[in-house]
Write a structure and sequence with these properties.
The chain is an alpha+beta fold and 409 residues long. It folds into 3 domains: 184 residues, no CATH class; 103 residues, no CATH class; 88 residues, no CATH class. It contains 13 helices and 14 strands. The strands form 2 sheets. It has an 11-stranded antiparallel β-sheet with strand order 2-3-4-5-6-1-7-13-12-11-10. A 3-stranded antiparallel β-sheet has the order 9-8-14. Strand 2 and strand 3 form a beta hairpin. The chain is flat, with a radius of gyration of 26 Å. The two termini are 44 Å apart.
Amino acid sequence: MAPKIVAAGVDTLIVSASAEGLPEELVASLDACKHLAQEADEDVATEYTFAGQVFYCKPHGSQRHWRYILHCPSLHLELGLGKKNHLVARARFSAVYLWEGGADGAISALYALLVDLLGGEHFTLLVSELHLCARVAGWEPSLEDANAFITRGHNKTQRLDYDGPGEGDGETDSSDSQESQETETGFGLPPLSIHHNGRRCAGFDFSRGAAHACCIYDKTKEISKSGKQWMQEVWLRNGWDGASRVIRVEFRYKREALHELDVEEPYAMLCQLAGLWAYSTAKWLRHTIPTDDANRGRWPLSPFWEAVQSASCDGDPTPAVRERKRQDDLEHICQMVSGCSSTARAYLAGVLPPTDGGSVFLGWFYQWMQDDLWQRHRCTFTDIWQAKVKRLGIVATMPTTSQEGEHHA
């Protein structure tokens, strides 16, 4: 199978907001929520929502700057008074939300939320961190690939005036001496870290922890451990055969790199994604087919990297992602309940009838659960699950009559 892109887009997006401060009414409301959370020693529901999901307030802040932390399944939002640097909010979207609705929809929803919270449009948004990724089927990393990657020495202050591969293209630097220095640097083998899975190469890290970094690894292997099968819904929509290994190529841009690349405002960023991807995959890093040519810049691109360069990071929203994630989560939870139930039933071997097929145990467990919840929390199972419906952002829908009939048939 020739290398094929089965997903590409924004996978991580952190956006900050600066303003003169938070409205007094909002501060009073958040202080009250935080106080309730501290008294209860757990997160408490607020009156605020995002994407139809209720925000919960944590009983503590984050670092010294962020006084309040609100969260829901789709968004993690930190709020501060902005006394020193005028930063009043930092928002991190969940990967599920980004893949389901796209980065443009996420930014618009955040803007509307901040208008509501801050009482108007008197704020400025800034991209704090961005991860762009492509998933490629039909290629697997090996130790030999370490010598096939090439990179080019860079000076700081790059601009996104680059829009395609080409030998000899120079970046826009702040002086002629910087430009000549980069020309002399040329292409070379990049420093990298190799991931191993036993004796097998599982991927590579380039400039890990730096402002601009790249990570390449086996996503199918990672999913088998993390249980994030919902991503496969995106792959299937883009031609994945359901069996080939999928390799993730991810470029990470922190604030310093984004500033050097002239990426500032989120809405403008949407138009710069193609330029970012082209810069990272053609200027900053390449995977090649090594030859005897001493000039590594003339080594031809591998079919794998040709596919990577062709990826469009605009993203294709996948509406079924959230429901697929819930189905996967439910399956894993039920598997855990099943395993724990059989173990508990084994401990009750001398208490319950030996012919019990499970129904007697479930009746025993139901009564035990109700008694335990009441003794420890003074609540019922119904109270617990109804609270979690709100916390998980689940829209409860009753089955239709025909569906009920099919279920009992």
